[in-house]
Amino acid sequence: MPSALSRLRRWIALAAFLVLAVVAGFYAYGRWRIHSAVQGLPATLTKLGVEVKQTADSFSVSKSEQGRTIFTARASRAVQLKDGGRVELHNVVITVYGRDADRYDQISGADFEFDPHSGDISARGPVTIDLVANPKGLLHPDQAPPEDLKEPLHIRTSGLVFNQKTGNGFTHEKVEFSMATASGWADGGSYDSHSGELTLERSIRINTMAPNAAELTATRGLITKSPPQVFLAQVHLTHGSQQVEAEKATVFLTEANTIERVLGNGNVQVTATGPTELALHSEQAEIFLAGQKSQLRQAVISGNVHIVTSGAQNTEAFADRTVLDFVEGTVLSKARAEGNVKLIQTGSSQAGRTEEEGQARSSTAQQVQITASAMDFLAKNGRLSEAQTSGAAEITISPASGSPGPAGSGQVVIGQVVTGQITHVTAGKFTAKLDGSNRLHTLHGAPNAVITSVTPGQPDRVSASATLDVAFRPQGGINSIVQQGDVRYHDGQRMAFAEQGVFTPGNHLIVLSGSPRVTGQGLTTTADTFRLNRESGEATAEGNVKSTYSELKPQPNGALLASSDPIHVTAKSMQARRDSGVALYSGDARLWQGPNVVQASTIRFDRDGRSMVAEGIAGGESPADPVAGPVTTVLVQTGADGKTTLVTITSLHLTYTDSERRIHFDGGVTMRNTDATIIGESLDVYLAQSKQATSNPVLRRESTTPSRLERAIAHGGIVITQLTRRATGETLTYLAAEDKFTLEGGPPSIFDAERGQITGDSLTFFRHDDRVLVEGKANSPVITKTRVAH
What we know:
Elements: H1 2-26, H2 32-39, E1 50-54, E2 59-65, E3 68-80, E4 87-96, E5 105-115, E6 120-123, E7 127-131, E8 153-157, E9 161-163, E10 168-178, E11 182-192, E12 197-208, E13 214-218, E14 220-224, E15 229-239, E16 242-253, E17 259-272, E18 277-290, E19 295-310, E20 313-329, E21 331-347, H3 355-364, E22 366-380, E23 383-399, E24 405-408, E25 411-413, E26 422-427, E27 429-434, E28 440-446, E29 449-454, E30 461-465, E31 467-472, E32 478-491, E33 494-504, E34 509-513, E35 517-520, E36 523-526, E37 529-533, E38 539-549, E39 567-576, E40 582-593, E41 596-606, E42 611-615, E43 631-638, E44 644-651, E45 653-657, E46 662-672, E47 677-687, E48 709-721, E49 725-735, E50 740-744, E51 749-752, E52 756-759, E53 762-766, E54 772-775, E55 784-785
Antiparallel strand pairs: 1-2, 2-3, 3-4, 4-5, 5-6, 5-7, 6-9, 7-8, 8-10, 9-10, 10-11, 11-12, 12-13, 12-14, 13-15, 14-15, 15-16, 16-17, 17-18, 18-19, 19-20, 20-21, 21-22, 22-23, 23-26, 23-27, 24-25, 26-29, 27-28, 28-31, 29-30, 30-32, 31-32, 32-33, 33-34, 33-35, 34-37, 35-36, 36-38, 37-38, ...
């Protein structure tokens, strides 16, 4: 009988001890110390220092080392059944202190049963486990409860079975746990006491409490002792509007059972809904924590990182690796993106817009893409405030439609790029400022800043400078780019130089200031400011405009503009296209080549066609316009005596084509030379063909003689005045070689101060003598020669 009682005591103590190990290890909140004690259990309890006490109404088992109790198991009653020697324990309470007395865990259950044949120890009802840390245990008497029970972990399960032969335990029932900040459960689990591994079979769910309420689910879990880690499969985390998913997750624990880091692998996805929606995808995400409270310290996202946000501004980002640093557990302090970094931004989607707003946006919508080897972001008050590129960096600006779509195999972009101009911006380094919504606000690039605009079928437009500054629009896209310091612009054969250039992608204009100068195709223009359209090639100059057309070939068949001498034009403003060779000068415009001068309100000059159209403003038409006035033309006239004089002609309009050698004036014409004035409604001046001179050995270029007035024909209300006579008619023909005037229509008449008035069908007189030829009708011609005495 004593032998049987001794065996019974051993089995009861062993059963209680193994139940403790299984349950404690099952919800490993650091129950590995208990498991270590289990593995040292020999066949007899006395060698381990296990003390078994039994009274009439209770049963207890305790384990001590070096005078300190490791655990105590108590039962109100132990019954050995006759059927197979099974043992029942009732009202079991197990208290675990640990070798360092740093625990005060309580494990309790109403009924347990041990089958010596199978080796199974089974809980016949619910099992409750309270896991409590007791860091001051060594300072208090042995087995004394902690003065302050802080955040115990409560575990409740049923159907627990542990086999003392295999060292494995399991339950198919729900395992529930709770603490001050979280609660959860899993359906079924198994425990291997040899490896110290706890497997959570299925349907794992953990809920954290407010204010950081979140829910974590997983299909399966594994907890290991060495190293202390938790493995989860098919993880899904919900935190407010945020969702996190991963195929696998590993939780790395410290020896104090605090979380050190969390590693997610395989199809990691993060989504967030709200005014701004976010979607993140990567192959791996790793979170590092620190301190007793496991505060977030750093997050590393790697492997084809892809982030998309949509809302007030659509953003898409790519990188090989992204590192986020935090302070105070939740406040972002800085971030770094590395490897093939690409950031794409467009405006908001068309949803909720009126048709007019949608059309207005479509006409100015831009897609801005930034690429770099790496980008560093600094945060202020938890928000990204500044970004800086490392290595080669480029900004690409392109037109975009309002709806997302794939741009190529394996890549999704926001804003399908449409055919049109694409602008590339490069610099040694870019530094960006972000607004309160983490959108690009300003960006500074230096050194060696370059802007390149590419349009299909046209030459590239390139502008370089020491620095550039980009201002972004709140609704998305770039508002302006300011280039400073030695600005150089190249557009086909046209080049421009200035101290500052302001580029606005919305209208493709670059405004040059600071002594700007534009050259190309033998033309040099200076002004106060230049406006160049990088898409159309149109150029506008404002303020003190001066153009010089050089490298001109002489035109032997031409006249007014046939010389190879430079043609100069000044005006208040100028408009020209890149390749047309036509320029419009406005505001006190003045064009001259050699002695020939044309001055007007506007002059349209065609360099290639050697032609021009000049327009004046009639007096009183625009009294507020300081340049109101007629077209004024100064020509060279060589008389029969070989003397050269200047002829000045004023009109409202002038047209000239060098190949025709004809200048047409209309809108009220006045022609003056040294001793005569001619007034009419229109006038055609025919110039003599230029005579090409010999090659100039000094200048090494061909030149021609100045053009000469050959003849002129005037129409409408002709009035000719000289010192002593005045002639009128409707048509005037003037021959310069003979200084001869012929008047017809009206009928023509001439008034001489001494001889009186002469009238006929045709009057012919000469500028340098007193002869007048008067002709009558053809059927009765009258010819009168009059010699006017001096």
